[in-house]
Amino acid sequence: MKVMIVEDEMLLAMELESEVEMAGHEVVGTAMNREQASGLVKGHRPDFAFVDIHLQDGPTGIDVGRDLAAKDIPYVFVSGNIKKIPPDFAGALGAIEKPYTTNGMKNALAYISAILVGEEDIAPPASLVLAEDVQPRVYSRQL
Q1: Is the pLDDT of residue 12 over 90?
Q2: What is the Rg, in whole angstroms, of the alpha carbon atoms belonging to the chain?
Q3: Is 129 within 8 Å of 82 (Cβ atoms)?
Q4: What DSSP assignment string belongs to the chain?
Q5: What is the mean pLDDT of the chain?
Q6: What gap in Å lies between CA 71 and CA 129, rounded to an integer?
Q7: Per the CB 3.0–4.6 Å rule, which of 22, 29, 81, 88 could disulfide with 40?
């Protein structure tokens, strides 16, 4: 799976990149603001994205999320304050609250990967807060 990371804290982005790669996925790039995220989407068309809410250019992560949802690219928010996520989750599958554990992120990534390839009988991990109206089959695709 090709994964994009939208995170402006470099150490967190590097840690997440390492975890994604250790799980056997490819990181197509890291964006620190909305403009960079847009460029990565155009240049690499990720299969999935992790998106922080507050970026270098302000609280634009929600806008990035809406941009991804409009392009049918599934994503989850990774944020220290998930209460700032709108009730509709801006089209996200869900959210992972910071600080997260390595094991929690690993479990969330395994769940997300399974959902994106169409597995239906899998329970979400405790580390992933799902959007209430998520329809996993909508995002099902061949990776």
Answers
A1: yes
A2: 13
A3: yes
A4: -EEEEE-S-HHHHHHHHHHHHHTT-EEEEEESSHHHHHHHHHHH--SEEEE-SSBTTBS-HHHHHHHHHHTT--EEEEES-GGGS-TTGGG-SEEEESS--HHHHHHHHHHHHHHHTT--S-PPPTT-EE-TT--HHHH----
A5: 90
A6: 22
A7: 29
- Whole-model pTM? 0.90
CB-facing half-sphere around the CA of 117: CA atoms within 13 A: 9
The two tokens of residue 136 are 């996993």
Mean predicted confidence (pLDDT) in 27-38: 97
100 contacts 127 by C-beta, under 8 angstroms? yes
